[in-house]
## 1
Amino acid sequence: MSNFWLLKAEPDSRIVKGKDVKFSVDEFESVKTSAWEGVRNYEARNLMKEMKVGEKALFYHSNCKNPGVAAFSEVSKEAYPDYTAWDETHPYYDPKSNKDSPKWFMVDLTFKSRADHFIPLSLLRFISNCSSASDIPEKVAYIGEEGVRAIKSMDLVTRGRLSVQRVDETAWNTIVLMAEKGGWDALELDKKMPSTAVATPKAKSGERSTPKTRAAPARTKRATANTKSPKKKPVEDDEEDESDVYQESEESSEDNYEDDGSDYGKSRSKRRTSLRGTKRKARGGDDDDGDYTGRAPRRKSVRKN
DNA sequence: GCCAACGTTGGC
DNA sequence: GCCAACGTTGGC
């Protein structure tokens, strides 16, 4: 069976080590096929290693003014070493990776089509914050309760930082339907949004910090960072081997395809106090299979400028 | 630009 | 192996 995925790319310019790492849907559509280099997060990398040729993937614009699903694509080449990690001048250079034992991998994705209606993250969040079917905007009521449930369970809304995610079939079908039918362009809701709650149990009142459910993650984008001083050892993985893939990217930019400009709610909870120490463990992994995370890089293009 | 979320480092 | 400090991701 085939899996469905979601890959992020940054549509806005961002200079890293002198090079622009942006990769928007416009560029993707024009180049058609692109290697997803730059992913430096173990969990994201491991997911890429699972990708098979022909599997479908959502192309998501991230770290931009209007983040959301912009296009549909397909895996056109399974995981292979991300050689950009060996290039010292590359934004995502990782001194710990080398040709003999590549630490990072990438896949090639081929552009298939644009979403007729760009699906903003704000809408997906809004839907995922609806507690009952009656809260769902009529304009998108066609996704049904099943669609709502599927969106609520997406990593995109439950753990935003992973740059390469798995998408279940129902969620995939729901996104495809929404991209096809749209309907929210005129919505204006905003008022509701329960705030960031959603799937993870967040403890509100008593709070504890530890969210037990979450744990790990991977970040996405931004790359490497390994340039810092050599600190400790990462748990990476490296070795593992065997197959795995990896990828990533993000994008965004202004696009509003369709409009959307609306925000279906925003709200973030504020609560600061860091809960940081609470536990959390990593997900990826190191080694093999694990998942873990590393950081994922952005994607492609390194253009300079 | 702010800052919540969370992965990573690294002392112990 | 635990966990506090630190650095990043990335939405807003």
## 2
Amino acid sequence: MSAEELTAPRLTRKGRATRDRIVAAASELMFLRGVAGTTTDDVQRAAGVSTSQIYHYFSDKTALVRAVIAHQTQEVLDAQQPHLGRLDTLEALRAWRDLLVDLQRQRQCEGGCPIGSMASELSETCPEARTDLAEGFGRWEAGIRDGLRAMHDRGDLRRDVDPDRLALATLAALQGGLLLTKVRRDTAPLEAALDASLDHIASLTT
Amino acid sequence: MSAEELTAPRLTRKGRATRDRIVAAASELMFLRGVAGTTTDDVQRAAGVSTSQIYHYFSDKTALVRAVIAHQTQEVLDAQQPHLGRLDTLEALRAWRDLLVDLQRQRQCEGGCPIGSMASELSETCPEARTDLAEGFGRWEAGIRDGLRAMHDRGDLRRDVDPDRLALATLAALQGGLLLTKVRRDTAPLEAALDASLDHIASLTT
DNA sequence: TCAGTTCTGGAGCTGACACTCCAATCGCGC
DNA sequence: GCGCGATTGGAGTGTCAGCTCCAGAACTGA
């Protein structure tokens, strides 16, 4: 049961648009200031809606947060297209790396990863959010895994390598790199983390 | 100028003990529920002190948070002794890895890294906290770097390897592994991340 | 057109939070 | 001991958070 299905019994076109506007505004604010640092009042103003509208579309703040998680997960995955899912060569992996680094540079290294930040903030205080975020990471991981599996199947990766484990490690390196990049306001950690990961993968090719 | 020096003009032995009790209680609570999720009231109760005592020792919540950061940084580094600073062989690195994984297992994979969690929560909202945390990560990174530099100097690592960059990548992998482990409630991500890092280092030995 | 539902505006409630204030007590240094 | 600053207790304050409520406007489907 997704967060989506928990809210919104029936929406007109206009209602859908309002709901989307709320989610978009909340996503932006929560990315910039964190979930706890974003009030429903802030969201109201940013989305240009009244108090009751937020509670018309979402049962409470938790429901809104879950909608934001769903939205941000999709945004993050979309931003990595068409790379994600086709990471089955070293060149594709390098291009993906460059995209991720560029994205952080464009953002002045602020905010880090929307999913990672929410995961860190909510995992211990909101079980529903934790599982939503775990699923989000799962989709991301799958996007990496597919490519590495293809390389493995094709024989480009050594037989004794576990591509699934390698994909998980790569996602972890990426997340850690994003965190350190956000704290240091410098892409060096992200670059070092991804380069080390990709060098490692390269060293496992046949 | 450290957070320490900003508070506490002159403390008696008793005052010192009270202050420490407040910081310890706040650290525990903020680790479990996050900074925003911890109220000064919670800290009061847990430390067994009155309202005025908190504001006697800390000018405001931010000052308390900075003291917590200093405390947690020290705790995290201490918990890795005597490994940290002596990570100059593959065996030492593997033993360190086992320690980190065991620690998460003991905690049922809850809470993740105190420094990483605070960094994620505070980087965008509290500049002083961000720099404190960046320094904390700097000390941690240095502990890893020293070992890899020793291996490099000794000729155990290939000449063309940059041990500083490798140390940064290793810390990133560790942080990402801790984050995913916290979200999934499973040590597999941490193990995969650290094993990949150490395998990579091993592949760079002469 | 009209009934029924969805959508919107905004006043207002309740609890909680960070923080203040002042008086009382403790204990260190002389 | 004695004085004075360090320490403590706890009531109180202002603000703001999340959320409720209700009346009216807008829209949909028949």
## 3
Amino acid sequence: MSSSAGGDATTRERILDAARAEVAERGASLTLGHVAARARVSRQAVYLHFGDRTGLLLALVRRMDEQLQLGPSLEHVMAAQNGLELIRRTMELHARFNAGIDAVAQMLEGAQYHDEALGQAWRDRLTFRHGVHRRLVDRLAAMGELADHWSAERASDVFHALTLPGPWRELTRECGLSQERYVKDMTLVISRALLR
Amino acid sequence: MSSSAGGDATTRERILDAARAEVAERGASLTLGHVAARARVSRQAVYLHFGDRTGLLLALVRRMDEQLQLGPSLEHVMAAQNGLELIRRTMELHARFNAGIDAVAQMLEGAQYHDEALGQAWRDRLTFRHGVHRRLVDRLAAMGELADHWSAERASDVFHALTLPGPWRELTRECGLSQERYVKDMTLVISRALLR
DNA sequence: GCGCTACTTGACACGCTGTAAACCTCCGGG
DNA sequence: CCCGGAGGTTTACAGCGTGTCAAGTAGCGC
């Protein structure tokens, strides 16, 4: 329930909604002044709630984590009955997920090298993401479908790296692939790479 | 005029060298003050030579283009006698190339959304890069080795997107793969994806 | 009414960018 | 020998964004 509808949302929520919108529009170069103006609070209110710019962005990232409810989607992926289907579901999840978080992800990626805390936040998410792919690969192995030439570790490295937001962004935003095409083509690439 | 001729380090060259070093150390958050100090010139000298911050970074990018001498390497890749070898050589080139340009590439990627000119510079390079992969795929097709399910366009999209600096960075810097492993694993992935 | 919380207003120090003006210094030419 | 320009330096300043501070105010429970 990220209300963007007027009245009785808390100030904190209004600021976060404004920050989300500003990130979407201006990317990493948002200013606290603009965020505050959009939320119709004073710039100082932002400092009172979040300490500093970094604190605001971290809170934004954390709220998106909560809102995304990744758990059920992951269970659905894991419930796939064969390797190809597991990979297809994974790519569907990536396509949907990436579309939702891309603006924030881009901001985090850009900020990671001059803001230690944001860098850590991004790294944490990548580590989690890597872990998920490791579990997926383990499942493939348990089903006896992982190709012999891969260790589980290396396969998860590749699975993780090739499905990052970067390639998704390039394919869908610049090369003009639809989400469906992304899912289809990447499913093909990954399944040919990882499966027997 | 700029780089190639004799050995006397012009002020302009000293500034560019300093900028390159600063980018390597501080990424996108370099300041003109630091660049100038490192080059042992006044901050204003930087403005006299390059106009503004963006101008300096564009000049840096252009100089790296010139220094990299991509042509011969590309010819070597194109001279491969079969599809697998062509892909292997491509991945070797990427591994070497990425290691050299990564700091600057990262800076450009990060800057692209709040600096139109830098964004354009990055986009130009990606477009060129995409074109190269298109030619590689055409070569694969001419050799009769491109798998049937790919159109040349789509195959080049995927080839291009999966070999971007982002995945390379993740695999070699975060997952700890050596350059050799990167080449080996990615050659496997791409060849299984694209070849018959 | 009291006091607390939440927020506002206005001011300020700091760092970085970008511009401006005055000066300095070497070097070549009339 | 003096002139002038090219290339650089120094100092100053405006603009903007961050982060901090202090004082003030509106609403609310008690």
